[in-house]
Amino acid sequence: MSVGDKIYEGKAKILRETEDPLVVIQDFKDDATAFNALKKGTIRGKGKINCTLSTYFFSYLSRHGIPTHFLSQESEHVMKIKRLQMIPLEVVMRNIVAGSLAKRTGLPEGQPLPKPVLEWYYKRDDLGDPIVNRDHIRMMGLASDNVLRSVESLARRINDLLAAHLLEKGILLVDMKLEFGTDSKGVVLLGDEISGDTCRFWDSTTKEKMDKDRFRQDLGQVEEFYQEVFRRVTGHD
Question: Is-annotated flag, keyword Glycoprotein (predicted)?
C-alpha cells in the first residue's frame, strides 16, 4: 500500500494518507513529551515498542469482541488503521490511585480503588485537556448520549480484559487513557494506541513503575522498563 501526504503529526505519532480514503497509516515516533508537552525528550526504541504493543493489545481485544481501528502492522513502527472521525474526548479508566487522581482527592498513591473509576477529559491541548462530566459534554455537543453509552461500555470492558490479562504477566494496570472514534458507518471503535505512553504499568510484586512516569518523574531506566513491559507482554526481546 502506497503512503501519501501527512494528515496530522502529534506528540507521539504521524498519520498519513493511503490510496484508500478509508485507511490511513499510523507511524509511531521515539519522541516523548510530558506535562502537556512542557517536557520533551526521546526514548530510544519507543516507536517500535509502542507500535508492537498496540498491535498485540488491539489483536487481543478484537479476539474478545472489542471493535478497533487496527488493520495490520506494516513494519516495526508503522501500522495500518481504519480512518476514524475521532470523538474529542479522552476516557481514563482508573484501578489504583496515581497521578492526578491522588492530587485531586488526597488519597495515597497506590491505594486500590473498590471498583474502576471512569473519567472524561476534553481533548483540547490549549486548555490542558480538562476533566469534564456528561453535562459539560452535552453542553458543548461533543458526543451524543448513545455514543457516550457505547464508549463507556467499551472502555469498562477493555479495562476488565486488559487488567486481568496483564496481571497474568506480572503487571498491574494502574490506569489507562483510551480514545474512540466512529468509522464511515458510524460505528464506535477503539482508536489511538495502548502502550506505556497511555497506560500506567506497575510490577505486580514490587510496584516498580514501568511506564512513561519514569520519564515524567526522572526516575531513570526509561528504555529498560519499556523493554521489560514489551518482553513480558509479547514474550520477545
Answer: no
